[in-house]
Amino acid sequence: MSDLTQLGIAAIRDGVANGEFKAVEVAEAFNANVAAASSALNAFIVETPELAVQAAQAVDADRAAGKALGSMAGVPIGMKDLFCTNGTQTTAASQMLEGFTPTYESTVSANLWAAGAGMLGKLNLDQFAMGSSNETSYFGNVISPWKLDDGKDRAPGGSSGGSSAAISARLCPAATGTDTGGSIRQPAAFTGITGIKPTYGRCSRWGVVAFASSLDQAGPMAHDVRDCAIMLGAMAGYDPKDSTSLNLSVPNWEAALNSDLRGKKVGVPREYRMDGTDADILESWDRGIEWLKDAGAEIVEISLPHTKYALPAYYIIAPAEASSNLARYDGVRYGLRDLPDGAGLQDMYAATRAAGFGPEVKRRIMIGTYVLSAGFYDAYYTQAQKVRTLIARDFAEAFTQCDVILAPTTPTAAFPLGENSEDPLAMYLNDVFAVPASLAGLPAMSVPCGLNKDGLPLGLQIIGNQLDEQGVLNAGLAIEERAGFVAQPKKWW
Ligand SMILES: NC(=O)C[C@H](N)C(=O)O
Q1: Where are the chain's structural domains?
Q2: Most Cβ neighbours (<10 Å): which of 8, 42, 210, 231?
Q3: Beta bridge partners of 122
Q4: Is 159 a catalytic residue?
Q5: Does any ligand 1 atom lie closer than 6 A to the CB of residue 129?
Q6: 80 noted as active-site residue
Q7: What is the C-alpha separation between 277 and 203, in angstroms, rounded?
Q8: Architecture of the 4-259 domain
Q9: Residue range 56-98, pLDDT digits in tens
Q10: Can you tell me the distance from the alpha carbon of 48 to that of 23, in angstroms, rounded to the nearest whole number?
Q11: Is 446 a known active-site residue?
Q12: Atom of ligand 1 nearest to the CA of 318
């Protein structure tokens, strides 16, 4: 194989296991790509080439000794900088945590290392995972490798934009993401890669910097459905350290992949045909419906009547939880401390939080504090929780009529950087198709389905019932096989 960085997880794992190439060669090839793209794409906050090589050496040694290899053996990955990594700086892309080096490892990253993966570095993201374009990062925005002739820099999506950019530019074959309201799916759609948010509770949140704890879920981002199935299998599993972790065994999703959808019903939600959605996206949705029919599925129209309330409910619940979670950054325990001369404790809190949080994080803390305040709690927070229940019920009802749901991932393709940054509502609208599944805790995936008329990637979303990652992956595979998406960004970095 001439260019090892063109390979995904399955091909690397198999090639290392068969002795076609060494894990160290793979790590070095990706390290070289990371180094070459460092300043142009800004996808990594910290690069750890030595850790990638060390993990690969251990895999090569195990293979030479005839030991059994893990499901991710020899695969170097990028780690979203929201996962605590023992001994490597973890910042959540904030000034607040700049220089914070955890003394413990998140459960998900520990699971990946135990499966034989190695770390290429910590990936950039929107600050505290709040954003849809990566422009809220304290370390500067990631630039999507996808460029058009207009020469404009485009958003790689967010919040997992370092992950999406790095995978599509072949700086890593896969990366972790987290998804609170679209943060895996929207960046995957913007960059022509695949990403799945599993059922809430599948992956432990222990050691993941908290944003909105009732919504936050980790998941894999990779080139294709098989790679996502493999990596999710390595990430997931019961963890007594996370009280919302599901005490269930992890299915072998890869072994059960099957794109034959005969006997399956695919729901197409009427309410997702929304004004403001690009014509290209609506066309790709129609094509997706035809592909799933071709795979043997029966298409049924379904109704998710409370869809239009999902976005407002999300932008109440997520900030409410964020305002509570982020109260811990007080300058006392860890992270930044700003202490003006002669100041007291209150002044220290205020100065620390004023300096350490960026504008979007402050906006959400203020919204969250407002909707939780005594006079407004019932009017906003309680109402939003009721809406959340109705949305979950809509899905439960829909899944009596279909097995999986097909929808667009985003209303538009990747937008130029700066285009939405002055208008938070326009930015939030990007999440319109993603947040309903988040509020209901359902598994949902984005699969690339083609390019729009300008040449930018588009994604289709598959939403499944609770715990039915397999159904989501199988429908995703049926789309992937028919879309034949092989486009890559033209290399300019
Ligand atoms: N964190 C996420 O899932 C991204 C979403 N756009 C948000 O800003 O909340």
Answers
A1: 4-259
A2: 231
A3: 46, 79
A4: yes
A5: yes
A6: yes
A7: 32
A8: Alpha-Beta Complex (3.90)
A9: 999 999 999 999 999 999 999 999 999 999 999 999 999 999 9
A10: 16
A11: no
A12: 9
